[in-house]
Amino acid sequence: MKRLFIALKVEPGESLLTMISSFKSGLNKDSIKWTNPGNIHITLAFLGDTDEKMIIPLCSMLKENCTGFGEFQLILKGSGIFRNLNDPRIIWTGIETSERLIRLNDIIVNGLKTIDIKPDDRPFNPHLTLGRIKHLNNKPALKTLIDRFKSIEFQIIPVTEVILYESILSQSGPLYKTVSFFKL
Length: 184
Fold this sequence. Notes:
By secondary structure, the chain is an alpha+beta fold. The protein has a single domain (2-183), classed as Cyclic Phosphodiesterase, Chain: A. It is built from four helices and nine strands; from the N terminus they run βαββαββαβαβββ. It is globular, with a radius of gyration of 17 Å.
């Protein structure tokens, strides 16, 4: 079994890195597992533990559905939290609404169903996970930071390929290994 997910790689630019640094320094006394900048991505479908024999049909489906889709761009904008300020779990950066991204996600999720792979059934909510909150004492600082960055446009990212990743969990955090990539 391999723990798999399908995603878009994001290379964080200077503005996004500056914002992440602001969150880290403003919340430095809290227990937050920050995402390594090299691991930042937009998840299209989380597959979880997947039988290795499904990798070949999975790659065939992704190649068939991604080839010719066409490259596009996304705008990284804003910040927020999942759950709420009383019980924050995830600090994120948003993605401005994109019909192309929604269409790509739909094509992939429908393709997964054709090969009998059931992805995570949560609604598609494109974002970049910046940190996972384990324990937070300074809620006012978090609110101030969220408010400060909630309307800022950080960068435009080119979307040129979809990547099938294996997530290998370790004590120092997850390692994301590229299984294959599929040009759009």
